[in-house]
Amino acid sequence: MSDDLNMSMRKFLKQVGVTSQQAIEKAMRDAETSGKTFEAKAVITIDGLDMEHVVTGKIQG
């Protein structure tokens, strides 16, 4: 894997992580979430590669 590809992927994944955390935190602040558990799912697709990656988990309020 080239260094450029590796850095490009890391930059994209950092952006996904940071912006997703901000969006989740805002949604949790805007709703009554204390003590609730939420099912979460993230889907990453790449056009042109016929790729879909799904990550599921739980977020505790």
Overview of this protein structure:
Pfam families: DUF6494. The chain is of the alpha+beta class. The chain has one domain (3-60). The chain is 46% helix and 33% strand. The protein has one helix and two strands; from the N terminus they run αββ. The chain has one helix spanning 3-30; strands at residues 37-46, 51-60. The chain has a two-stranded antiparallel ribbon with strand order 1-2. A hairpin with a 4-residue loop joins strand 1 and strand 2 (51-60). The chain starts with a helix and ends with a strand.
Unreliable spans: none
The secondary-structure element order is HEE
| Overall pLDDT confidence | 95
Number of strands: 2
Distance separating the two termini: 39 Å
Over the alpha carbons, how many angstroms does the gyration radius reach? 15 Å
> What is the tally of helical segments?
1
% residues in beta strands: 25-35%
Q: What's the oligomerization state? A: single chain
Q: Label the structural class.
A: alpha+beta
Write out the strand line-up for the largest beta sheet, numbering strands in chain order.
1-2
3D shape: elongated
In total, the number of domains comes to 1
Fraction of residues in H or I helices: 40-55%
- Summarize the main sheet: 2 strands, antiparallel
Pfam family, one: DUF6494
